[in-house]
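Predict both folds.
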Amino acid sequence: MELRNGTRVKEIIFLGLTQNRELSLLLFFFLLVVYVTTLLGNLLIVVTVTCESCLHTPMYILLRNLSIADICFSSITAPKVLVDLLSQKKTITFDGCLTQMFFFHLIGGVDVFSLSVMALDRYVAISKPLHYVTIMSRGRCIALIAASWAGGFVHSIVQISLLLPLPFCGPNVLDTFYCDVPQVLNLACTDTFALELLMISNNGLVATVWFLFLLVSYTVILLLLRSQAGEGRRKAISTCTAHITVVTLHFVPCIYVYARPFTALPTDKAISVTFTVISPLLNPLIYTLRNQEMKAAMRRLKRRIVLSDRV
């Protein structure tokens, strides 16, 4: 469907993940399980950190913030994908598309900044252990979390501000399952080459540089751990390894999506599913399964709930 005579697109049609009915049902049940598990896993982290006073430290407060962001991030795309998998016609209003993009980049930005703050927290804890409590005070930790959300908001506003002036007069069909800059930019009925380069530098280049910076930061942290010994060193290495895994899982798909020309490739949908739905599930799994302190706190919380039910 194409619109002309300067008429602005009012509705966008998604082609979705697949046109096959049986495969759609299979994907629906798989993604439903993933989404529900993501919500429960991240919610469990939020509740555990909130209820267990022994976890009221900067590292776990920052982890709770990341879990809140992951709940929001998965909820931006997953419910719409699940509904569309059971629908014949997969549509979204143009305003709804812009709204989805706004929150997608808002929470995506929060994730990036939160992972950076968590790297800073580990660096201070390992390089300046005697001053850690002073440097990463509760007030400063909350300020860094607020800055992460503010950074995500600014990033998202920039994305939407660059897209709004463009004329979208058709076509209005996207071969994807959610709205994002690379796909929507291709719907503009004007030359977007310069804007595409700007978007690649704003998103892709920054993501690549930021990823390399975080990898270098964690390399420095691991080198600092060589001078330590005992149980503290083992726990620190385990924590840093978990952080590196999460950073890699977040940034690699992000770089794939934004650090190249905005042309469709056969692997785009698989990467997008990993990026938008699977990644938020892996974060709580990685942080809880590798963290003995978190698992012990969850067991204590479970015992408290069981005892309160008996009373």
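Second protein follows, with its predicted structure tokens after the sequence.
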Amino acid sequence: MGMSSLKLLKYVLFFFNLLFWFCGCCILGFGIYLLIHHNIGALFRNLPSLTLGNVLIIVGSIIMVVAFLGCMGSIKENKCLLMSFFVLLLIILLAEVTLAILLFVYEQKLSKSVAKGLTDSIQQYHLDNSTKKAWDSIQTYLQCCGVNGTSDWTSVPPASCPQDPQVKGCYVKAKLWFQSNFLYIGIVTICVCVIQVLGMSFALTLNCQIDKTSQSIGL
């Protein structure tokens, strides 16, 4: 019974992490694609490195490393790798909870900071080519204009702005999208946390099962 439980746990954890390793590869690839084709970071002059592409590359890389540890630890029945996998998942989970609390506490301050950063970058539209490309890209994709509306452009709005006089600003439109999809974002976040807890539970259970099996066969 001990050996069958060990095999079941081993393969469940292995395929569980293999799936996440492929997800990490997809996120990493998408991040590289965004980094090459969409220079959104130029919208924020104070944080040029904080782009969606960079964030996705970091997240994808972390997922791949953690999933690799889980795969190797489970298939090799290596306690050291399993505990490393467990500890990394725990650190990531605590970081996510801390980030969620900070976002909730400093929501207004962050909102004002983002709006100010976007407003400042508009002033660089005609001076910096990367900023121009970033604004043209985001306004075309979201069908928005400026930060809060066409009035943000001191001169004539660029050609990337929709012709509709009632068009919303990019910041306003993005904020409305997050508000309308807050429930779905919350559900996805909770699902991710639950999956992480399950992964930690499987790793800890498999680790204990390896100990019991070793003791039963006299190792």
